[in-house]
Specification:
By secondary structure, the protein is α/β, with parallel strands linked by helices. It is built from 22 helices and 29 strands. It has three domains: about 220 residues, Luciferase, domain 3, CATH 2.30.38.10; about 190 residues, ANL, N-terminal domain (Rossmann fold); about 130 residues, ANL, C-terminal domain (GMP Synthetase, Chain A, domain 3). A hairpin with a 6-residue loop joins strand 27 and strand 28. The N and C termini lie far apart (about 55 Å). It catalyses: a long-chain fatty acid + ATP + CoA = a long-chain fatty acyl-CoA + AMP + diphosphate. Its cofactor is Mg(2+).
């Protein structure tokens, strides 16, 4: 009770003593640029686009070697030791694998550079020739990073492929690029064996694991693949060193295959100069980034957000500890009960995240707080409301003394979920809801830098600064980019709109990539060079610029559907608003232009709906049955309507009917990408009968 009294009285004293006014800080400024007429903004701290932050450094190879020379004895790459795998059977009789993981074991910068150099030499000794391409097809791990840097030292373009990619897309990526070497894990090797007859150019397989499946003998005889382990390749290179074949800035570093949210994936060609520009720009945004920082790497390295982030971290002497989404926290699905998750074991200071991950963290915290109830919940609610008032500027600031008080009294245990030391979170890959951004910001006591960019711009676009406490925006242009809005007359978005200019977002700068591999038609459609030689990428996203030069994403051209009576529904906007409902684990809005309302497929949160059923005395034999119950549908729908009204959605934007789904959408299902974005066309085909019934 004393903690509660202190929590009430002390903030009142702070409020009376420490009130200051909030001044708007300029973060972006208008600029005159070439190309199509529009409203363009640059970063206010840089008059021209940044290409490199290091004198004499023009490629990723040079950047990595410089870091290894500067920080030879500091830890760079860390991996947890696997102690045991155990099977756990739940109440339904289903078996789940649980991992007991030990502490992190580290490679220093010097040892990492040796491994990279040996791998580069071993790759050449295996017969991989200049001009041939290599593919990395694996989950995020330290061997991924070593293989990437090793290929760079031989000027070998790297094809990045999501480990969750389906057979058709995998074959397309490897055959289109004519990859002769594939670097993968045991799990991915098994996938390659299954489709070996469909692969045209593959000659060598390098397995990151020492354990190679016995089934490879069949492949060896029919396709003459040279299959070996990564350890043996490094040993070969160590015993037979080869001089590096260093790339030029204009050479292709990566051909990154998108996760294919619509149709087959496209390969985006990225030069060393492209990626270096983004890495250099982020360096200027993350506060005090240096050798004392520890980064938790768990997002797919085949995604440009993670690839750029790890190159940033490695450039300044920081440490990278590898984990996975399924072992992230102490309560993650694959962590043995009573043992540490990756965040607890590592205690990172810097993290990247996608909105879906942060949404789950938010929901998990809320569930625990609600379950405790009583004084604990009252104190949490008071602390949250006080911090919310502070962040909104009603008293002396978001990062003052009261923050320390609430961190000590209330939020310490929540912050311990991610190790207790996180000081900055970078969010990207999709729009982050204002509710989640504010919740994470307050409970974890750390700023969230929300970024906007695309594979085609090497993740470079905009980025919100650490002192920007607003939500729903994605910041000012990164120093490597100019961001321009152009009129989209058909959609009703114009740069002359009031109170803010609006239009399609176009990004220009040294981070804009050359185009799509072997797809000149698509390249010409969305890339354009202006009279000054600058390349611009037409994103298809709709944005508006605030007075301080920060961008807000408000729509997407492809996601807008015109209903029967002429109203436009922005599918992504509605989904973002409704995902705030505690019952919504995932959602896809579908709008048929021949009807006057939209409908929704809702993947339901198991814990939330089961808890509601328990409180209401609703009996059910399994979760699938519960999702069919009228009272459950009514409860979820009511919650979604409330979320819609809180977000000020129009009546026609609120789904007229919904369907509850009990099976989660995961990348392996093929319904979402590795970055957890919806594959609308795939979902629409998969649930075509359900959607038809919702309109009947």
């Amino acid at each position: 009770m004393s903690a509660y009294i202190v929590g009430v009285l002390v903030p009142l004293v702070f409020t009376l003593i420490l009130r200051t006014s909030k001044k708007e800080k300029k973060r972006g400024l208008p600029i005159n640029v070439g190309g199509e007429p529009g409203y363009a903004i640059r970063n206010c701290r840089f008059t021209d686009a940044v290409t490199t932050s290091w004198e004499g450094i023009s490629t990723l190879v040079e950047l990595f070697e410089q870091a290894c020379q500067k920080h030879p004895h500091k830890p760079l790459l860390g991996t947890r030791k696997l102690i045991s795998r155990e099977a756990e059977v739940n109440a339904d009789g289903k078996s789940f694998e649980k991992l007991h993981l030990g502490e992190y074991e580290w490679l220093t910068y010097r040892k990492s550079f040796e491994a990279v150099s040996c791998f580069a030499s071993g790759l050449a000794q295996m017969g991989h020739k200049r001009g041939e391409r290599a593919a990395i097809f694996a989950d995020t791990r330290e061997e991924w990073f070593i293989a990437l840097q090793g290929c760079f030292r031989r000027n070998v373009p790297v094809i990045t492929i999501y480990s969750s990619l389906g057979e058709e897309a995998l074959c397309h990526s490897l055959n289109e690029t004519e990859a002769t070497t594939v670097i993968c894990g045991t799990k991915e090797l098994k996938k390659l064996i299954e489709i070996s007859g469909q692969l045209d150019a593959v000659e060598r397989i390098i397995c990151m694991d020492d354990e190679i499946p016995s089934s490879i003998s069949l492949v060896d005889r029919s396709h003459a693949w040279n299959i070996t382990s990564m350890a043996k390749v490094e040993k070969l290179g160590r015993e037979n060193p080869v001089e590096p074949d260093l790339p030029l800035p204009s050479d292709t570093a990566v051909i990154m295959y998108t996760s294919g949210s619509t149709g087959l994936p496209k390969g985006v060609m990225m030069t060393h100069a492209n990626v270096l520009a983004t890495v250099s720009a982020v360096m200027t945004i993350v506060p005090s980034l240096g050798s004392k920082d520890v980064y938790l790497a768990y997002l797919p390295l085949a995604h440009i957000l993670e690839l750029a982030a790890e190159n940033v971290i490695a450039s300044v002497g920081s440490a990278i500890g590898y984990g996975s989404p399924l072992t992230l926290t102490d309560t993650s699905n694959k962590i043995k009960k009573g043992t540490k998750g990756d965040a607890s074991a590592l205690s990172p200071t810097i993290m990247t995240a996608v909105p879906a991950i942060l949404d789950r963290v938010r929901d998990g915290v809320r569930k625990k707080v609600d379950a405790k109830g009583g004084l604990s919940k009252k104190l949490f609610d008071l602390a949250y409301s006080r911090r919310l008032s502070a962040t909104n500027g009603s008293w002396f600031g978001a990062w003052g003394l009261e923050k320390l008080l609430w961190s000590f009294l209330v939020f310490r245990k929540i912050q311990a979920i991610l190790g207790g030391r996180v000081r900055f979170i970078l969010s990207g890959g999709a729009p982050l809801s204002g509710d989640t951004q504010r919740f994470i910001n307050i409970c974890f006591g750390t700023p969230i830098g929300q970024g906007y960019g695309l594979t085609e711009t090497c993740a470079g676009g905009t980025f919100s600064e650490f002192d920007d406490t607003s939500v729903g925006r994605v910041g000012a242009p990164l120093p490597c980019s100019f961001v321009k809005l152009i009129d989209w007359v058909e959609g009703g978005y114009l740069i002359t709109d009031s109170p803010m200019p609006r239009g399609e977002i176009v990004i220009g700068g040294p981070n804009v990539t050359p185009g799509y591999f072997k797809n000149e038609a698509k390249t010409r459609e969305v890339y354009k060079a202006d009279e000054r030689g600058m390349r611009w990428f037409y994103t298809g996203d709709i944005g508006q610029f605030h007075a301080d030069g920060c961008l807000e994403i408000i729509d997407r051209k492809k996601d807008i559907v015109k209903l029967q009576y002429g109203e436009y529904v922005s599918l992504g906007k509605v989904e973002a608003a409704l995902s705030v409902s505690p019952y919504v684990d995932n959602i896809m809005i579908y709008a048929n232009p021949f009807h006057n309302y939209c409908v929704a497929l809702v993947v339901v949160s198991h814990p939330a709906l089961e808890e509601w059923a328990s409180k209401k005395g609703v009996s059910f034999t399994n979760f699938s049955e519960l999702c069919e119950r009228d009272e459950a549908i009514k409860e979820v729908y009511s919650s979604m309507v409330k979320a819609a009204k809180d977000a000020h959605l129009e009546k026609f934007e609120i789904p007229g009917k919904i369907k509850l789904l009990h099976v989660p959408w995961i990348p392996e299902s093929g319904l979402v990408t590795a970055a957890l974005k919806l594959k609308r066309d795939v979902i629409r085909r998969e649930f075509s009968n359900v959607l038809s019934k919702l309109y009947s």
